[in-house]
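I had to read the description of the data format several times before I understood it. Each protein is reduced to its one-letter sequence and a matching series of backbone shape codes. The format is easy to grasp once an entry is in front of the reader. For illustration, here is how one protein appears when written out as sequence plus structure tokens:
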Amino acid sequence: MDLLIKKGIVTQEEAEKVRAEADALRTNNANFQASQSKWKISSGIKNIELFGDLRGRFEDREVKDPFGGRIELQRLRYAARVGLRGDVFDDFYYGLRLETAANPRSPWVTAGTSSSSVPYQGPFGKSTASINLGQIYIGWRPKDWADFTVGAMPNPLYTTPMVWDTDLNPLGFAERFKYTVGEADFFVTLGQFLYQDTNPEKASSGYFFALPYTSSDLPFLLAWQGGFTYHITPKLSLKVAPVFYDYIRRGVNPTTTSASPDFSGTFVGQGSTNNINGTVGSAWSGYPDGNYDGFTANQTGINDLEVIDIPAELNLSIYRFNIRLFGEYAENLEGVSRADAAYSASRTAFQPVGGGGIAIIPTPQTSQTKAYQVGLGIGSTNLIYGPSQGLVYGTSSRKHAWELRGYWQHVEQYALDPNLVDSDFFEGRLNMEGLYVALAYSFTDNILGTFRYGYARRIDDKLGTGGSNQDIPQMNPIQRYNILQADLTFRF
């Protein structure tokens, strides 16, 4: 300021006025205090993260039966998943996530639909949209090599959509262990998952309507997985992780009639377009008002399932690309018994045999017990890839990153659990084989677009395409299947 006075730019009086104003500002700022946050977080929480995604989709889904009959859906759909997760002191962590659908295999909601026509709800219906708790879990990590989780959790297993739909959050307990020896990272994952609540566990006769039982053991799915990642070079690695699935107890049908699908019945997998009395309706493969365990032919039974599954992948990072060669082989060790049981049930459940247009099983198809997948993926580096991870699944993104992925998949009728397989590829059905291809591109760090296409066909023409899915349950068998999806995703 003195220099400005000497040069005659300002007068002494003007300089004194500026100094007085500056002193006043300093005094006011000294008394100023930043407003405190209105959020109050427990002192036991180390950190908290908001995460999730908002997604929009155009989908074209088409099925054809053996006689040329056709059903096609063209839908605009949306989904939202919003959650909180983080760490607390003493080596614990937590997580919860809300989702926009009750279907455990899909958070997607079709735009403009209404759950009921009475009363009339007008255009732009939203009554099928809902908010549900998809994940809620608590974990403990006492050491860097040990991890224990309880609740409805992200799938802790290394697995693919061939066996597990990527939207499923198993509920129960999981234990994970890892240890590194040289260039090999070994890991073990154990899971004990509650399959279905069939309470009352025990009850005297007569207390629960006319239920014909006095006890019900809750069904559990047990998983044992052990594997390794071997770093052949800094840019080349191999991962193999066999897993064994066993089902203990099957529960009972928790209703007084067979109008609700359950898992205690004998899986049949056959379908029909007619009811037992010849009318179109309850014999469809996926609506819970049929004549036998929720369907005219049971589509959901978990009898005779002991599955060994071996997923593997070879990863190569070269120049600016990440290349993944991946594959999987699975077999039901009790598949022959499952095929025999389906054959017997298909001939005893209906009177007369073959009534209602139901295709009977001519002989037990005991060879249909295997499943496999083989594929290739290529994409940008510095992203996390895996069987259910990557840009094509919306689990990671980076501006201008991209991924192209494709695979061939073959799943026989008695190979896998029909209630767990991917509901999109291919329609949540067994006895199907086909091609999947997907391309994803990140416009920004948070916005990405994805295009997916799938084609599948029936494997064994003597069998139906067993399984229950909410999208197109009316057709069984499916002879040909096509699906196209175009997504726009905002992830955070």
